[in-house]
Amino acid sequence: MTDTSETRSADSAAHETQRSRLHRLMRYLPLIAPVLLWAVPCWLLLLHTGQHWPLPVTLAGTALFALGLIGMPLAMVRGHGRRQQDWAAIVGDTLLGTIWVLFTWSVLLGVLLRLALTVSGVGDGQDRARIVTWAVLGAAAVLLAWGYAEARRVPRVRRLDVQLPRLGAGLDGTRVVLITDTHYGPLDRARWSARVCETVNTLKADLVCHTGDIADGTAERRRAQAAPLGTVQATRARVYVTGNHEYYSEAQGWVDLMDELGWEPLRNRHLLLERGGDILVVAGVDDVTAESSGLAGHGAHLAGALHGTDPDHPVLLLAHQPKFVDRAAAGGVDLQLSGHTHGGQIWPFHHLVRIDQPALAGLSRHGTRTLLYTSRGTGFWGPPFRVFAPSEITLLVLRSPQRPPTP
Asked: Which segments of 153-266 does DSSP mark as H helices, in order?
């Protein structure tokens, strides 16, 4: 018995040591990541064996990478720190997106193309090195230009029929429009916001949902960009839940503004959508980060959101982060609508998102009853680019298994 206890104690101590090392590493990550992002492309494109660029080119290129390494963190701190200077945020965010794309493709394309050229015997070492450099720079430039256009355009509408086994026939065909992660921010997108709302209004929605991350900045600061949300039309209701970014920017101010614009903030509460004698419970919870925000009265409470509802009625739940679906499934929710992931926004960031969230984008099943729809988001966060992760406005048409067959 003593040996078993000692073994468990040793295992526990080893586990705690590993966690402590991981925490120490995470503290240094903000220092390590920028160095890797800027140093790796500099080495592969300028300094790697076989390059032999003229000295002025090597010096100028190295200086440019060094300037980016110093300037990007400074701009990010100035833009997103206490001062929150929009011009600095734009510079820092743009540099972050640019170097992420350059880092990714200098590694992937650089290594693969160099290998292919070597195997095929094209040129000597210097010729191959320069071909790789120009190919990487060209690919990065094209992806950044395309990614910027993708981020700035009005999202395409993604239409999807979703069958809910418990949905009554009277509610068959209910049209639910989902927008999320608009992230109004340093780049003024008031006109973009108005055009998004115009597109939403063409969809003739019964219910319009916004699942959070309205903006980066306070409601007072981003009011002009958010104001077009007041023009959104729905035959039944416009509902909203908080995202994690609201809790960086005075969340209660955003709740109050959305209420002022005619939206119903579903803060751990619900409303009933009734048609043809059938009822759909539309519920919402605060973001999962609300409890740690220190803001009084904020926190994700599914039991509170469903309090007083009939357990036989189907439930549509708004929750900003997909990871809430475990609680939703345990609570018998039929369909959860979420955002947060941005679909990865800039490939291959998708793979990092998957570590934290159970779904990246689209419709997925969790448990025996619960469906989760994860939007790739309507806007963008930070870097003004979307690469292989297009934005969307989503139209979900709810279907009942009891509906009459189409003639």
From this structure: 190-201, 219-226, 251-260
Q: Which of 112, 131, 151 is the last residue of a domain?
A: 151
**What is the count of structural domains for the chain?**
2
Q: Which of 151, 181, 211 is the last residue of a domain?
A: 151
Q: Are residues 353 and 298 in the same domain?
A: yes
First-to-last CA distance in the chain?
Answer: 73
Give the DSSP H or E segment for 237: strand 237-240
Does 243 fall in a domain? yes
Q: Would the pLDDT of 9 be above 60?
A: no
- The reply to whether 146 and 165 lie within a common domain is no
Predicted local confidence at residue 257, as pLDDT: 97
199 and 258 both lie in a single domain: yes
What are 201-227's pLDDT values in tens digits? 999 999 999 999 999 999 999 999 999
Model confidence at 138: pLDDT above 50: yes
Sheet holding 207-210, edge to edge: 156-163, 392-399, 174-179, 207-210, 237-240, 264-265
Tokens in use for 131?
A: 């071909």
The tokens for 104 are 């990714």
Phi (first) and psi of residue 112, to 5 degrees: -65, -45
Residue with tokens 């590694």: 107
Query: Which domain CATH number covers 295?
Result: 3.60.21.10
Measured CA distances, 287 to 62, 236, 291, 386 (Å):
43, 24, 8, 24
Contact 282, 329 (CB under 8 A): no
* SS3 state of residue 377: coil
Cα separation, 21 vs 18, whole angstroms: 5
pLDDT tens column, 391-405: 999 999 999 998 665
Domain containing 302 equals: 155-399
Q: 3-state DSSP call for residue 73?
A: helix
404 part of a folded domain = no
Distances from the Cα of 290 to the Cαs of 210, 244, 248, 263, 361, in angstroms?
A: 17, 7, 10, 20, 23
Cα separation, 115 vs 232, whole angstroms: 53
- In this structure, of 101-110, 150-159, 174-183, the range with the lowest mean pLDDT score is 101-110
What residues contact 358, with CB distance under 8 A and at least 6 apart? 322, 323, 325, 326, 364, 366, 372
